[in-house]
Amino acid sequence: GCQTGATPETPSRDLFQQLGERSGIAAIVEDLLFLIVDDDRINQQFKGMDVARFHRNLTDQLCQLSGGPCTYSGREMRELHADMAITDTQFNALAENLILAMEQNDIATGAQNRLLKRLIPLYPDVRNL
Ligand code: HEM
């Protein structure tokens, strides 16, 4: 579960709030999915994926990374992306789409950047470096 309740304010908690809590993050991930499907730089990679599972797991991951009360229960990042041969261009394309999705959901630029900063450590795993 991912409940929101009376919890002391911490910097990480604050990012979760700025993203609109789990429901706000779920809306961002939904918009991200539409952008991915429209983006010829990356959409072929996502052909045949389980959309509902992707939505749930990425939402939980971003919720947890932003300091929210969620636990990511999807597959391990390196293992999951290992056979995809993801290029820098494709990684950047996904990041660009995430930024666009956050823009569409009126997320403040500072909050956008703070989330991106927390995703950067996953770069070597996603690119299998
Ligand atoms: C920081 C960057 C990234 C993060 C945090 C991330 C995270 C995730 C997460 C949480 C899932 C769902 C895991 C699950 O269902 O068990 C996923 C699935 C997937 N990711 Fe990534 N990802 C990133 C970058 C990329 C890039 C750049 C690509 C390709 C362009 C990509 C391609 C995929 C595909 C195709 C799936 C679906 C696999 C399937 O369900 O068959 N990811 N990713």
Question: Strands, helices and their partners?
Answer:
Blueprint: H1 11-18, H2 21-38, H3 51-65, H4 77-81, H5 88-104, H6 109-119, H7 123-126
Helix pairs in contact: 2-3, 2-5
Bound molecules: protoporphyrin IX containing FE.
CATH class: Mainly Alpha
Give the count of helical stretches.
7
Please give the number of β-strands.
0
- Which residues sit in consecutive blocks of at least 5 with pLDDT less than 50? none
Briefly note the CATH topology name: Globin-like
Total domain modules: 1
The rough form would be described as: globular
CATH architecture identity:
Orthogonal Bundle
Q: Give a list of the ligands.
A: protoporphyrin IX containing FE
Q: Provide the helix percentage.
A: 55-70%
CATH superfamily: Globins
Largest sheet: none
Question: What structural class do the secondary elements suggest?
Answer: mainly alpha
Query: How many angstroms separate the termini?
Result: 33 Å
Pfam family, one: Bac_globin
Protein name: Group 1 truncated hemoglobin
Organism: Marinobacter qingdaonensis
Keywords: Heme, Iron, Metal-binding, Signal, Transport
Task: Give an overview in words.
With 129 residues, the chain is an all-alpha fold. Helix content is 60%, strand content 0%. Helix 2 (21-38) crosses helix 3 and helix 2 (21-38) crosses helix 5 (88-104). The N and C termini lie far apart (33 Å). Bound molecules: protoporphyrin IX containing FE. Residues 42, 45-46, 49-50, 53-54, 57-58, 61, 74-75, 80-81, 84, 86, 90-91, 94, 119, 122, 126 line the site of protoporphyrin IX containing FE (HEM). Residues 42, 45-46, 49-50, 53-54, 57-58, 61, 74-75, 80-81, 84, 86, 90-91, 94, 119, 122, 126 line the site of protoporphyrin IX containing FE.
